[in-house]
Amino acid sequence: MRVGWIVLGLLVVGLVIGGGAIMASTVFSTRSTTTTPTTSGVSGGGGPFTPSTGRASTPSASAAPEAPSTSAATVEQPAPGERVSVSGVGGNRSIACNGNVVSISGVRNTVVITGHCSRLEVSGMDNQVTVDSADTINASGIDNKITYHSGSPSIDKSGFDNIVGQG
Predict the structure, then answer these.
(1) 46 in the Ramachandran plot: left (φ > 0), alpha (ψ -120 to 50) or beta?
(2) What is the pTM of this model?
(3) Segment Disordered: which positions (predicted)?
(4) Digit-coded pLDDT (tens) for 105-161
């Protein structure tokens, strides 16, 4: 009985330290989706995070080309087998998986994954993840929801109130 209490105490301490580390890393990380380059006072990408200048203008021919949009409509296409990491707070991402290992952490991220992943790892809190198929799904953290569309993945759940299911 005493060993059970010790193990429970260590688990609680580990979750507190791990949760603190996740929160600290997400608070101090920078998100590239929140800024868009500007040229001569003209907003660069017209995305949802671009501040409005209140005036319409057209960039001149000498203006630098715009950076690619990082909105949810853009689908990332990593090289086959490459490891992909998603982190942050409140992000929206779309990824085309081709045998990749995808690792998602942070808080309240929404990630849509098309194609087949060799492994999907979700940690953090309140993340919503949809994947076409995966060989292995590992869910840890708190209140994460992972939905897969097809296949019979090997599922490993730890943490609290994580949901993994076909839908």
Answers:
(1) left
(2) 0.58
(3) 32-90
(4) 999 999 999 999 999 999 999 999 999 999 999 999 999 999 999 999 999 999 999
Asked if residue 146 lies in contact with residue 131, where contact means CB atoms within 8 angstroms, the answer is yes
End-to-end CA distance of the chain: 41
Give the integer Cα–Cα distance in Å for 80 and 99: 6
Q: How far is CA 130 from CA 4, 30, 142, in A?
A: 36, 24, 17
CA angle, 157 then 158 then 162, to 5°: 70
> How many C-beta neighbours within 10 Å does residue 11 have?
11
Decide: helix, strand or coil at residue 105.
coil
The CA angle 90-114-152, to the nearest 5 degrees, is: 105
Q: 141: which 2 tokens?
A: 């953290």
- Per the CB < 8 A criterion, the answer to whether 86 and 101 are in contact is no
Which string of DSSP letters, residue by residue, matches 50-70? SPP-SS-----TTSPPPPPP-
